[in-house]
From TrEMBL:
Compositional bias (Basic and acidic residues): 16-28
Family matches, as PANTHER family: PROTEIN TONB, PROTEIN TONB-RELATED
Name used for this protein in its record: Protein TonB
Location(s) in or outside the cell: Cell inner membrane
A Pfam short name: TonB_C
Topological relation to the membrane, as annotated: Single-pass membrane protein
Biased composition (Pro residues): 29-46
Keyword field: Cell inner membrane, Cell membrane, Membrane, Protein transport, Transmembrane, Transmembrane helix, Transport
Amino acid sequence: MSHRVVEAVLGPIETRIIEEAPKPEDKPPPPPPKIETPPPFVPPPEVAIEIPMDAAPTTAIRQTTQQAPVAQPPPAPVAAPVARTAPKSDARRPLTQPEYPPSSRRAGETGTVILEVYVLENGRAGDVRVKTSSGFPKLDEAAVREVKRSWRLVPGTENGKPVPMWGQFAVTFKLTD
């Protein structure tokens, strides 16, 4: 019964055979270019030129002066050595530990960041640079942010006077939980 339904719906199928169009014949490739062979190597002729030796060149001093050489000025006096002390942490205001980034804590990231801190005369951090990374950028950023935000240091001195100076400080991140 389904066979009759298909015949009624589709009707007779007509087919035609289509001839293939003839393919154009490929042209042969052009002949390779002719390469000229280089001429054989002929060495240049050897030519010897003789130069007459009238007089040998001299390197002796021919003229002298009777003026005394100008005396050098005495060396500048050596400045007294400058007594310098590097910046350090203040025992009255201990350095605070930065907040451990939560994503770093979850990932188990630990390490030590070595920071270069430009300590101003008043003990505040003027600029902070990462000298040696902990290997994790989030830990490095947390350490830099904490130093800029809350650290107070004893400034470096020259001859007893506080002066702005670079100092190195380490911040260690370790999981204790």
